Amino acid sequence: MKSQALQQLQLEADLREAIKNQEFQLYYQPIIDLKTNQIAGFEALVRWISPQRGFVSPGEFIPVSEESGLIIPLGEWILLEGCRQLAIWHQKYCQNPPFMLSINLSTRQFSQVNLIECVDQILTETGVDRNCIKLEITESAIMDDVDEAIALLEQLKSLGIKLSMDDFGTGYSSLSYLHRFPIDTLKVDQSFVRRMDDSQQNTEIVKTIIMLGHNLNMDIVAEGIEAEGNVQTLKNLNCEYGQGYFFSKPLPVTALEDLLNRTLYQS
User: Fold this and answer.
1) Which ranges in the chain belong to alpha helices (H)?
2) What is the structure's pLDDT at 194?
3) How far is CA 41 from CA 92, 106, 176, 190, 231, in A?
4) Taking a C-beta distance cutoff of 8 angstroms, is the pair 47, 55 a contact?
5) At 146, is the pLDDT very low, low, confident or very high (cuts 50, 70, 90)?
6) How many CB atoms lie within 10 A of CB 19?
7) Distance of alpha carbon 59 from alpha carbon 70, whole angstroms
8) CA-to-CA distance for 48 and 28, rounded, in angstroms?
9) β-strands 219-222, 54-56 pairing
10) C-beta of residue 104 within 8 angstroms of C-beta of residue 166
11) Angle, CA 166 vertex, CA 164 and CA 169 arms, to 5°
C-alpha cells in the first residue's frame, strides 16, 4: 500500500509538471453520419506522451487528475486546443454542414465554480463556431443534484454550444429526469453496442435508447462500433451517428488530415 501511495504521489507530481510543460496531445476519433457514411465530426481525446514515462494510458492519469483537481487546468487546455483546431479545420475544409467537435467535461469540471466564464472565454478567444462545439457530460456528473445540474446545463446552452449525455444507460437512473435536461445528443454506451450481435436483448436495449432519444428530439451517437454487423443494425434502428474502431481509431492531427484528404473528395 505504501508503494502504491508513493507511485500515485509521483504520478501526480509528474502530471503537474506535464501540464506546465504542455506534454499533452489531442487525438481525434471520427464520428460518422450513418446515412451518408461521411465524417460528421470528431471526439477530442487527450493523450500524454511523457519524456520520462513514454506513453501514459488515459486510464492511468485521468483518475489521478480528477482526484487531485488537475483535471481543471488540463480540461481548460483540452477545450482551448480542441476549439482552436476545429476553427482551423472549418477554414481548411468547407463542409456543409461543418464538422462538429465533441469534448468531454469531467465530473470535477462540472462542479467548477467559474466553468461558464471559462468556457465562454475560450469560445471567444478561438473564434470557433459555437454551434459546432458539443460538451459531453456523463450521467453520474449530473445526478447528484438534478435541479442544480439543469440550471448549469441551461447556462452552458445559453453560450450557443450543444450538449451530449455520454455513456447513457450504464447504471444511473436518469430516465425520470431526462426530458428536463437541455440535451441535444444521447451517446449509447459501447458495452451495449458491442454486444448487439450476441443477443436480441442487447439490440432491444439499444433500440429503446434510440427511440427514447428521438421522442425527446435528441440525436443519437453509438460508441464502440467494431463490426459491420453493428453498423447495419444501427442503420436499421435509425441511429444517426456512430464511432468506433470499425471506422477509425483516434488519430493525431496529421494522420486525421491525411484521412480527411483521402475521403472527403472521393467521387
Assistant:
1) 2-21, 58-68, 71-92, 107-110, 115-126, 139-142, 146-157, 190-193, 200-215, 228-236, 253-263
2) 86
3) 14, 20, 30, 18, 17
4) yes
5) confident
6) 18
7) 15
8) 14
9) unpaired
10) yes
11) 120
Nearest residue to 235 (alpha-carbon basis) of 30, 100, 33: 33
Q: Which of 70-79, 167-176, 210-219 has the lowest mean pLDDT?
A: 167-176
Query: What cell numbers appear for 1 in the block?
Result: 500500500
Q: Which residues contact 258 (CB under 8 A, 6 or more apart)?
A: none
Length of the chain measured in residues: 267
Chain centroid to Cα 84, Å, comes to 16
Closest C-alpha among 149, 151, 145, 195 to residue 169: 195
Task: Select from 183, 242, 198 the least CA-distant residue to 36.
Answer: 242
Q: Are 46 and 74 in contact (CB under 8 A)?
A: yes
Asked whether the CA dihedral 93, 38, 25, 53 is positive or negative, the reply is negative
- pLDDT of 191 reads 87
The residue written with cell numbers 435508447 in the block is 209
At 2 the pLDDT is: 65
Print burial letters for 140-167: b (CB count within 10 Å at least 16), e (below 16): ebbeeeeeebeebbeebeeeebbbbbbb
**Cα 145 off chain centre by:** 22
Lowest mean pLDDT among 148-152, 173-177, 181-185, 192-196: 173-177
Mean pLDDT, the chain, integer:
91
Q: Is the pLDDT of residue 267 over 60?
A: no
Rounded distance, CA 220 to CA 33, Å?
A: 10
